[in-house]
Model the fold of this input.
Amino acid sequence: MEQRTASILVVDDEFSVRDSLTSWFKKDGYDVRAVDSAAAALQALEQRKFDVGVFDIKMPGMDGIELQDRVHRIDPQMAVIMLTAFASVETAVQALKQGAFDYVTKPIDPDELSHLVQRAIERRRLGEANQQLRATIDELTEAADGAIVGESPAIRKVLALVADVARTEATVLIRGESGTGKELIARAIHAQSSRRYFPIIPVNCGSLPEDLLESELFGHERGAFTGARQRRKGRIEMADGGTLFLDEVGSIPLRMQVDLLRTLETREFTRVGGARPIKSDYRPICATNEDLGRAVAEGRFREDFYYRIDVFPIDVPPLRDRRTDIPLLVRHFVEQFAERMGKPVEGVTDEAMEQLQAWSWPGNVRELSNAIERAMVVASPPRICAGDLPLRRAAPAAAPCGDSLAEVEKRHVLAVLERTGWNITRAAELLEVDRVTVYNKIRKYGLAQK
Done:
């Protein structure tokens, strides 16, 4: 895109100064408007905006200081350069304190003034670019907020908690079964927070062995271990200014919980193989599908670390507890996959909807999304039929009331393993996790093939 010509407003009561400045600026390729008073300058600003203003401080009537104040109320982004005699430098310094970009003393050095104007224009354009970037980010974060679909009382309660905690810096612990959308909740908190213009950095703590997780979180120095050929930033360092999202926090090894606890309390860490402490200003959000209180009682999770991350808990309900949201979610996923696949499917038949609402959804919203995506592949427009849905087997019974999340997860993982004949790769695909996570769950719950 071709960049527009920068514009300059010159305000000076001396004709010779206005004439000289106009000639210099036009030779530099700028669009110049020159006026002889502050009143004329304000009239010019009613007609258009200028990138830079070059104002004489001492003028009859309204002086340059008052003009600068009036201009910044009209256009806060306009950069103002003051022209002053040597004896009035103190007044120019006052102008700087009130927001002027810089000042030049008379007699004016054309090269000095040209350099200042160029810098002022660069700052103006950088400010405009930042405004556009922020507007774009605001649009994207609004879209992120809208990704949480549902109107049930259960999900409305969650969204209210998200809005409350997003305005603070409190550490959040998001609790819920696999597939309930815990990362969406974390992203919604980040999107509504003052940190939204910085990144949210996710880490799946359950998908990496301990040594790799340490390097992933803290980074490493060159030569810290075999294969460390260069220095590498960790996720904690990358989250500086933004949000660090620790998913499956219950999988973090006990030894590393000690290091993370100190980092959460001090916002300082040391890279693997390093000696210099590094600061990172981030907001921690954690998520778990485990009962961490039980893990603490069983010695699998540090009590001090648990209390440090459980400052503001948010419980995300399973899909079976928000069944009134299923039609909304189905419509959302159908529209999403129809656009992605270029397939004119408009919805589902009544019979298909009955099946979808009757299913227990052990895999929650993630399982529903997968079911709709698979049905979209085989469906004939305009609607998904009951026969298109991958719900052939008998619907699994709902978990007995009072069971913990860990017990529900244990049964579900075991059921998937048995259904796949203990094919770890296939089980990982159905559970939508990696093979390392499946092995971790097998060890954690002491599962064994019959």
About this structure: DSSP finds 18 helices and 14 strands in the chain. The radius of gyration is 31 Å.
